[in-house]
Amino acid sequence: MTQWVNRREGTWRLALTIVLAALPLWAVANDAISAKAGTSLGIVIATREARPGKDVSVPVTLQTNGLRPATLTMSIRFDPTYLSYVKEADGPAAIAADKAVTALEIPRGSLNIVVAGFNSYAMSDGVLFTAVFHVAELAPQGILPLECPASSLSASPPEIASLDVSASDGAIEVICSGPPVPNPVAGSLVAAQGALVIWGESSGASAYQVYRGETDDVALAVAVSDWLPATTNQYMDSSFLANIQDYCRLYFWVRARNADECASDPGGPVDFALKEIPAAPTGLTATHGNSDGILLTWNATLNATDYRVYRSNSSDPATRQPLTGWLSATYSYIDATAAAAQNDFAIGCSGRQVLDVVKYTYWVTARNANGCESDASALAQGSRGLSGSAAASVLPSEVGDALLWLAAGAFLALCRLSQKARRACSRL
C-alpha cells in the first residue's frame, strides 16, 4: 500500500513538473496566436528639426502592443544628397533586453538595422535606438523624408514568425530661412592667379561662401572658401592651379548667410573652360517599334573622338544615367536592353491587340582627345516593339475583320431562333 501511495505521489509530481515546464511554451504559443489574430508591433521614426551643416539625432521607438519580439530588422531610406549617416546609439528598450543595435549603410541612402542579442529575452516598449544624421550645408529648407519600407520589417524568434510589423515614417525638417540668393554671379580666369568669382549683394547677409564643382550639379560642389565678411563681393580661387591639367571645366556658386547662421540657396553658377571642350552632339534621333531594340543616331561632332549614350525613363535631364561606356568613332547605337512592348489582352474591332510600350529618353555627349566631355545633346525619345515571337501572335487586320463578321453572323442566326429574339433584332 505504501509503495502504491509513493508511486501515485511520484506520478502527480511528474505531472506537475510537466505542467510547469509547459507554461513558458504556452505563453510563446499565446503570443503567436495573438500575432495571427492581427496584433502587430509598431516602429515609429521620429521627426526632428535641424539646420544645414549640423548633426541631428532621430529616435526610433518600439511599440510592442503586448507582443514579445526578441529580434527585429528594418531599414531607413533617406536622400544621400542632403543627409549622411553618422552613427547610431542603442536605446533603453534594446539595452534593457541586453540587445545590440547594428546599422550598416548599403547601398548609399539605405540604412539597414538589426536589433539582436545572444539571448531570447523579449524587448519592451521604448526607444530602440537613435540614428544620427548630418545635414548638408546645401540642404534646402523643407522636409527630408526618413522612410521605412514595409518589405524591410521582420521580427523573430521563429515561434512568432507570423508576427506583423508596421512602421510610421519620420523626417528631418530643415528650418533655416536664409537671406536672398546672391546674384548675379560672374567672374573670369586670371592667368597664373586662378578664377576670380564676383557676386551681387544679398540683403541681410552677414557672410558669403564660395563653392566649386566639376559639373553643373550644385549638390556635388564643395566649399573652397571660409565664410567671408559681408563687405566682400569677390574671391580668387587658386586652389586648383597645382592640378589644373586634371580639369576641363569648373563651376562656381556663392551662398549668403545671415546672423542666425541660416544660408541662402546657391547663386550661380558661373563656369570656366580650362581646356577645349567639344560642342554637344546634334541631330539625335530614336526609333519606335523595332523588335530588336531602339536605334539611336546622331551627327558627328567636330574634334570628338568618342561618344557616350545616356538614358532615363523621364525627360528630366537630372535623372539620366550612362547607358554605355565611351563609343569610339561611331554615330549610332542600338539599345537592346530596352524593354520590349507587351501584348495586352484587349482586342480592338480591327483585330489588332493593344500594345503596352515603354518610352525611353536619350541623350548623347561627345569627348575629345583632351578627355573633356561636352554638354548633353537635345533629348530624343524612343520605344521598342514586340519581340519576334510576340509579334507573330498578333492578329492581322484581315483575320480580325473575318472574326468580326463571323461573330455578327452567329448573332443574327441566334436572333431567328425565337419570336422574342426577332423582335429584339427588329429594334436594332
Set out the fold topology.
Elements: H1 2-36, E1 40-45, E2 47-50, E3 55-63, E4 71-77, E5 83-90, H2 92-96, E6 100-105, E7 110-116, E8 126-135, E9 142-146, E10 154-156, E11 164-168, E12 170-174, E13 185-190, E14 194-199, E15 207-213, E16 222-223, E17 228-229, E18 234-237, E19 249-257, E20 267-273, E21 285-286, E22 288-290, E23 294-297, E24 304-312, E25 321-322, E26 327-328, E27 332-335, E28 342-347, E29 353-356, E30 359-368, E31 380-384, H3 388-392, H4 397-415, H5 419-426
Parallel strand pairs: 1-11, 2-12, 22-31
Antiparallel strand pairs: 1-3, 3-8, 4-7, 4-10, 5-8, 6-7, 9-12, 13-14, 14-18, 15-16, 15-17, 15-19, 19-20, 21-23, 23-27, 24-25, 24-26, 24-30, 28-29, 30-31
List its salient traits.
disordered N terminus, 428 residues, flat, alpha+beta, Immunoglobulin-like, 5-stranded mixed beta sheet
Question: What does this protein structure show overall?
Answer:
The protein has 428 residues and is of the alpha+beta class. The chain folds into four domains: 40-174, Immunoglobulin-like; 185-273, Immunoglobulins (Immunoglobulin-like); 285-392, Immunoglobulin-like, CATH 2.60.40.10; 398-426. It contains five helices and 31 strands. The strands form eight sheets. Strands 22, 24, 25, 26, 30 and 31 form a six-stranded mixed β-sheet that branches. Strands 5-8-3-1-11 form a five-stranded mixed β-sheet. Strands 15, 16, 17, 19 and 20 form a five-stranded antiparallel β-sheet that branches. A hairpin with a 5-residue loop joins strand 28 and strand 29 (353-356). The termini are far apart.
